[in-house]
């Protein structure tokens, strides 16, 4: 199992590396990292600091998001006071809502359990909150007031998912901690299945 997980991590790193290289070749770079990591011709990955999301979308052009699946790999974290970081967006606002404002023609909605995106590669019939690294020390699956996990999307006018949003979860930590015996496999396993389903959906729908 551990060898399979490590192989999956390597494949994901390779895909991310290719995407970042393509982004650099296209000249799409900013001071805080690549504005957009393009992978193939069917999907986009927002891979910037959470605070830079709106500027990244503006730099890339909202029209370029049309007809593509967008994977949100961002976290609204503030490292200005050192480690551990704090959330840079609190209160009644959220990063998802900021993306919604940056793409005003898109509508955020909950993804139903029977949607193809949950069944195109892996049959994901059970979903639960995927916690960040804090779970190892605290046993809490949530951070701040993010108690309820939400699976949301922005669709095209034809019903195709363009932006996939995993709210109140930390898939990035689940991938990073996948080979740690302290981090439960059920969380990292679901995180891998989710992102592989999203990539498969982007290439087949």
Structure overview:
The chain has one domain. It has 6 helices and 10 strands, in the order αββββαβββαβαββαα. Helix content is 35%, strand content 17%. 28% of the residues are buried. The two termini are 30 Å apart. The chain has a 6-stranded mixed β-sheet with strand order 3-4-5-10-9-8. It has a two-stranded antiparallel ribbon with strand order 1-2. A two-stranded antiparallel sheet has the order 6-7. By secondary structure, the chain is an alpha+beta fold.
Task: Give the structure's gist in a few sentences.
The chain has 205 residues and is of the alpha+beta class. It is 35% helix and 17% strand. The chain has a six-stranded mixed β-sheet. A two-stranded antiparallel sheet has the order 1-2. The protein has a two-stranded antiparallel sheet with strand order 6-7.
Radius of gyration: 16 Å
Distance between the termini: 30 Å
Tally of helical segments: 6
Shape: globular
Q: What summary fits the major beta sheet?
A: 6 strands, mixed
Order of helices and strands: HEEEEHEEEHEHEEHH
β-strand number: 10
Broad structural category: alpha+beta
Low-confidence stretches: 1-40
Beta-strand share of residues: 15-25%
Summarize the amount of helix as a percent range: 25-40%
Instruction: List the domain count as a whole number.
Output: 1
Question: Roughly what is the average pLDDT, rounded to an integer?
Answer: 73
Spatial order of the strands forming the largest sheet: 3-4-5-10-9-8
């Amino acid at each position: 199992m551990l060898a399979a997980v490590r192989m999956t991590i390597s494949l994901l790193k390779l895909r991310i590396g290719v995407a970042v290289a393509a982004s650099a070749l296209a000249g799409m770079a900013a001071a805080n990292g690549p504005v957009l990591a393009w992978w193939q011709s069917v999907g986009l990955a927002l891979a910037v600091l959470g605070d830079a999301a709106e500027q990244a979308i503006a730099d890339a052009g909202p029209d370029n998001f049309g007809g593509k699946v967008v994977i949100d790999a961002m976290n609204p974290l503030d490292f200005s006071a050192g480690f551990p970081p704090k959330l840079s967006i609190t209160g009644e606002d959220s990063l998802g809502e900021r993306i919604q404002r940056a793409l005003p023609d898109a509508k955020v909605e909950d993804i139903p359990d029977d949607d193809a995106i949950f069944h195109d590669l892996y049959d994901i019939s059970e979903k639960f909150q995927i916690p960040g690294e804090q779970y190892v020390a605290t046993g809490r699956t949530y951070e701040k007031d993010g108690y309820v996990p939400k699976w949301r999307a922005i669709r095209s006018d034809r019903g195709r998912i363009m932006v996939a949003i995993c709210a109140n979860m930390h898939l990035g930590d689940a991938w990073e901690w996948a080979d740690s015996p302290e981090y439960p496999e059920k969380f990292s396993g679901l995180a891998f299945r989710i992102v592989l389903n999203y990539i498969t959906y982007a290439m087949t729908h």
